[in-house]
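The passage that follows is intended for readers who have already worked through the single-chain material. We present the inputs for a multi-component assembly, then the predicted structure in tokenized form, and finally a short commentary. You are encouraged to pause after the input and sketch how you expect the pieces to fit together before reading on.
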Amino acid sequence: MAVTVGVDLGGTNIVCALVDDTGRMLQRAQRPTGMPRRAEMIAEDIVRCIRDVSAQQAPESIGIGTPGCVDPVTGVVGYANNLDFYDTPLGAMVGRAFDAPVYVANDADAAALGEFYAGAGQGCRTMVAVTLGTGVGTGLILEGKLYNGAHWAAGELGHTVIVMDGEPCNCGRKGCWEAYAAAPALVRQTQRAMQAHPESALWTVAPTLEQVTGKTVFEGVEKGDETAQAALDLYVKALAVGLGNLVNSFDPELICLGGGVSGAGDALMQPLRRAMAGQVYTRPGQPTARIVLAQLGNDAGVIGAAMLGRQRG
Amino acid sequence: MAVTVGVDLGGTNIVCALVDDTGRMLQRAQRPTGMPRRAEMIAEDIVRCIRDVSAQQAPESIGIGTPGCVDPVTGVVGYANNLDFYDTPLGAMVGRAFDAPVYVANDADAAALGEFYAGAGQGCRTMVAVTLGTGVGTGLILEGKLYNGAHWAAGELGHTVIVMDGEPCNCGRKGCWEAYAAAPALVRQTQRAMQAHPESALWTVAPTLEQVTGKTVFEGVEKGDETAQAALDLYVKALAVGLGNLVNSFDPELICLGGGVSGAGDALMQPLRRAMAGQVYTRPGQPTARIVLAQLGNDAGVIGAAMLGRQRG
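Having made your guess, compare it with the prediction:
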């Protein structure tokens, strides 16, 4: 049976796995990324990790998911802030230690690929993976292939404006989807609702504003608190507007929601499905994108990285 | 030399052309669409038009661009309001009269293909054609292929929200890009500016609000009128926000602007290029989409339709 190796390179850990062609993990290894460190040192530890998991079976290919903007043809990471990578030829640095081809992709794209081949997207041709975490990330798989755009900068839907002149975004624009739909936006909206409503039961969930997390609002809703419901409705509305834009742009078969906020499960999905009504440009009865939860959690990245060879091979 | 036939089916006219493989029109014919009429009658006139232009040379393929939502595999038009088409098998209806294969596509997609092969997009791989007319239409060509999505509903970027809870749009959503960037939006913004500024020179360009067109504001700017400049700036800002969203989503090599409003030329493009600064999520110095004017005007549709065989063949 053919096996491949995936590497999920993060700011904290290097996670590596030997994966079969159905996406099942056979071996797993992990080392600290150990920042701040030179790229050469990180690459050496990636090589060690790969050797750890592939001692028994030689992989057909190796895939690496990394933060930052990646040229998938050359394997060069243009820029990755949290790893101090700048035009770093990661593919070549790791590749010289192995006979197998090494493919490099953005980590959000790798995670999308994991869900596509081995998670929520199995059987799909066109899927968008949306990650609701510190930011809003989107990985595009169009007609079976990762889509990266002409300058490897496609799929930054977190940085599309849904409220012209709205909340400031880290990217410098105002009113980006990310500024309304990422976890920090949910925290901010919960805090604002609490400040406006001293009587809210949210204050029993989080006694101080500093204790508010992305889960607070869901606990408030569970207690039947109206302020929490209103705050969640606001968040879900903006999430739905952005997802509607995504559907009207890409018309995918499936949208798969991952990241911290998606951990709320049905408490998020039920109001979201209601809020999606009217957001999609279609005639009545026409099929449109299904919206589902991601299935692989944190493993999506390392499994998807192992699948990169299937895309490029 | 191989020749193909293109048909641009509109609510008013059937335009048909024999086109060589560089996109040059060799023969041209036109008949009134003659609405209201049954689809069978329209198809018969399309057949006559095709015979008119191909009497000398048999075409290798025939392509038809039509309004509405088209399944390019079956050639069935799901729905086209202004032609009374509803699940109309247009490809089969025309195809039975010819030996050559008949391909059907949405007219905006056909126009995008015309610019791609024979106009502003020559030499590109990934291009988005944006039409600023009665609505805002977008035709997507990704990595050399028309992209239609999983349910032939992709590329409705005119119906992506840029102002949550903003101006009502014909589609039922609020704050769509189309509600700010189509020609009627420019007219509306010009009218509002005139109402707020009775001293504006716009009143000399258009003595009554009913006389305002999409050109009025540009004539006012030419006269140095501040009210006109402010109205144009508002329009251009919303146009730039939507184009920035498009770039951050699709990262095309080229965006090609057509439709009535684009007829303003430099008077539109210069403020637009300034307004695009800061709208694109990229690191400094990284190449990004060029924004240019369409080159083929009304011929883009019929030329692009003739090129459909190149996509599907």
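Commentary: The mean pLDDT of chain B is 95. Chain B touches chain A through 49 residues (CB under 8 Å). How closely did your sketch match?
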